[in-house]
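Researcher: Let's try something more involved. This one mixes different molecule types, so please make sure each is placed in the same coordinate frame as the others.
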Amino acid sequence: MNDMTPTREQREAALEGMGCKRKRVEDVRFTQGKGQYVDDLKLPGMVFGDFVRSPYAHAKVTKIDATEALKIPGVIAVLTAEDLKGVNLAWMPTLAGDVQMVLADGKVLYQNQEVAFVVAEDRYIADDAIQLVEVEYEELPVLVDPFQSMAPDAPVLRPDLEGKTEGAHGPRKHHNHIFNWGVGDKDETAKAFSEADVTIKELISYHRTHPSPLETCQCVASMDKVKGELTVYGTFQAPHVIRTVASLLSTIPEHKIHVIAPDIGGGFGNKVGAYPGYICAIVASIVTGIPVKWVEDRMENLSTTSFARDYHMTTEIAAKNDGTVTGLKVHVLADHGGFDACADPSKWPAGFFNIVTGSYDFPTAHLEVDGVYTNKAPGGVAYRCSFRVTEAAYCIERAMDILAQKLDMDPADLRLKNFVKPEQFPYQSALGWEYDSGDYHTAMHKAMDTIGYRELRAEQKAKQEAFKRGETREIMGIGVSFFTEIVGAGPSKNCDILGVAMFDSAEIRVHPTGSVISRMGTKSQGQGHETTWAQIIATEIGIPAADIMVEEGNTDTAPYGLGTYGSRSTPVAGAAIALAARKIRNKAQMIAAHMLEVSEYDLEWDIDGFQVKGNPQARKSMKEIAWAAYHAPPPNMEPGLEAVSYYDPPNMTYPFGAYFCVMDIDVDTGVAKTRRFYALDDCGTRINPMIIEGQVHGGLTEAFAIAMGQEITYDEMGNVMGASFMDFFIPTAVETPHWETDHTVTPSPHHPIGAKGVGESPNVGGVPAFSNAVNDAFQFMGSTHIQMPHDAWRIWQAAKDLGAHG
Amino acid sequence: MIPGEFTYHRPSSVAEAVAILVSHGDEARPLSGGHSLIPMMKLRMAAPEHLVDLAGIADLKGISESGDNIVIGAMTTQNELINSALLTEKLPIIRETSLLIADPQIRYVGTLGGNVANGDPGNDMPALMQCLNASYVLAGPDGEREVAAREFYEAAYFTALAPEELLTAVKIPVPPAGHGFAYEKLKRKVGDYATAAAAVVLTMNGSSVDFCSIALTNVSDTPLYAGDASAILTGSTLDSDTIKRAVAAAEAITDPASDARGPAEYRTKMAGIMLQRALTRAAERANR
Ligand SMILES: Cc1cc2nc3c(=O)[nH]c(=O)nc-3n(C[C@H](O)[C@H](O)[C@H](O)COP(=O)(O)OP(=O)(O)OC[C@H]3O[C@@H](n4cnc5c(N)ncnc54)[C@H](O)[C@@H]3O)c2cc1C
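Model: All components are placed in one shared frame. Result:
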């Protein structure tokens, strides 16, 4: 070897593989405004569709008259439920086993519900025509409070379900009841409570909010009547599922439907489901044979397409005097709005809420969830979390603080006492999960030491004394949160969507010159897949990430996959990528053996090629092997170098983390300032530390927003309040706290590269950290629980109710 | 979020603009920065058939001193207010307030004239103009008239401005050198309108208040000049009892709406807290 030969370190660095802080390749186009989003698309002859929406939350629709609207030049059609009935699409199935009106069929169930679809030559004409469609309504009594849904005299929201005592998930006990879901051991739990030294009970509510991606939901449907082929471009987090659903609903064969998800400007769960806008655009294009675009505006997005949360969790913990927890009991009242359009794996009506035992070794637990209808928009999607996992983490983390308060114990110490111990993994939780790996104590101690937890507690004590003496009007809160997530849905034994098992896939093709194209069943909405997927392949097959192109979102070219949400991409598709890459490496080894005229067992892998054991000079790089694969493959071997892998995970993965929030609160205005926020994440193997940091920053910013004010509310008439960015809290750089990030690494034992997924951890762990900080600040005044969101006026109200204003 | 159809006009003189307004009556609306009007049009809460863009009228720009007054042209942007050396020296509270309005992008385009003519109780400049006892110069078919800021606002979006009139300038009497001032605004985030805000200008003579003027933003359907509170403080040493009484007098004239910023009670109390904090800061800044 001469001096110019790169060292092993140089060869390794050249790959920019796993562990490298590789810059995001997609950002080159995003930061230059060169992304291609759905609304950038202009097809020849394309027309535009938009909705007439209901001003009422609950009303009969007695008449729809489009005569005047149709007189406007440029208006092509006005679709109503009657028209959709002709193609059997006035209603559509939801992912949760319910049905949902596409257009108002005789009544409306929430404000802004879709009533008619106007198709016009441009958006301006469509909007003018909307004003002229005359709709007559007969108002009905409105139901907004989920606690009133099952009152005997509650209004009937769903006459279509009349007499149906059996729902998609078992018996219904009231006309506004959707399902009851129970897990765990009721009797054992009751016993734990009867024998407990100490118990706590609190109604912990997680308010209604919305994923609010920067880009709203939108699509362009284009029917080629001659070929009988339908192309749908859309903001789809799960394009393959959308194609299957479109085929089942339209009866167009699946191979004649092309679904393309171009660049997506954020999803956060909002873009998983199917919406009336998609159906109407598709029907309008099928009928007219011209491309139809539908684009939501911000208010439509916030008020109609898939909200998140609205979980009301009555939580009880039983414990011994020394703090050891002995039982957990949770009852959830879940407000699903007018239709059950939750996006969960089909058999899981409350998602994976049974992760609610959290990071703690509860010997027994019992959980029950009742889903109910109200006159609110449907949804209940996982807003940057795995299915209902944020709700569960908030529930248990708030409850542990309440227990600590009752026991007069430090909340961090209470957690340390009850953590599942490292030697208990794989750990069987009382509510049915098998946690793959974890080292909670190490993470917690590292976090406490780094932020100086004990010193902060001392400072807080001194501040409380000063406050009592009247020397300051500021109080201090320390929020502790230690979350365990469950992500990576999921194993086919328990996860499917409409019957399709929740595997994911990857296809990798190595070209003769040693560059690569690879395609996955996932779809990035900003997560940086084009960067990280290439890094996994780079490490696995020794080809530089820069020479690997990643493509997702086109159902014609990508292998079938279930899409990106619930932090499933790395746990599921990430594994498929590694396994497909390993197939390629195995074949490459045989080719190298042939080239070097040795047995393949005499070869060893070395960063970017194979070398003969004990004779590293005799080596073939992947580039050389790739050429040989197309030029002179071994006899009896198929030429080419490509592989496909479909991965059905054996288990979920369980990322975890320790988050601390230090907050100063002005008692007189209710303004809370986050002084410090420290987030330690353990997501197993770290593929790209810079992307992880970015994901954590983004998720924490959302958590901050949700905990401190982001909310969709309704007045008693069912009018949706705050459905614009004037009121819906999206923090700017000015409000957003500074984030301190940290990590430990506990790989997943069952994942091919040990990675667990991280995109949603910060939202899951962040919300309880913020809420616990606010609650912690007021504890010394005798408060046990203050409901979210903690915007200034509500904090002020809490302070007032506690007598802090004198 | 798409406005109705309208005709766009771009006159180059005040007279020409007034003539267009006269010929279309309520169907025409002046357009300055558009950062209040265009959102209303997109929501179809306003649907003017004629938009009269004032951007081409050079006479409506500029900040000048004339005798005891500072005169600011209606089309002066909020960003120009922030960067004016004259205002920074003579009327620093305008800069302080402007910096609390919206965000830089909006301030590059939003104008003082639009902000005060709009009649939205959430706008910050109207209360400030009441605090400073400014008057507005209105040009109409019959010539010019002046209306005091304290007399201009009738109800939300209802002002003394007639449909065929244009607000051409704001005239502000220069407060004495060494005056103390503060604009305290509580808001949920950058770019938000006030939950409550208070403007204070005062002068001190030794330890007692010589002169005091107070106005409040967004705690009623108009901006509020707090005359009683101002009177209570004048002559006092800003002792805590007097401040308490003044705050109570200011709170008493509020009548805020309950909205996502908080219930009425909260917003009234916040007006009081903002006033207290503005008084403290203004007193610290005043020459003695
Ligand atoms: C996100 C956002 C946040 C904001 N936050 C704040 C804030 O915190 N505080 C605040 O004060 N403002 C705020 N604004 C409003 C902003 O300051 C506007 O620019 C201002 O209120 C109006 O000024 P304009 O020049 O844009 O007026 P326009 O929008 O053009 O006009 C407003 C109204 O005044 C009329 N008008 C305008 N000029 C004249 C004139 N010369 N004569 C007669 N009538 C006239 C128009 O016909 C219209 O009815 C915000 C705006 C946005 C979009």
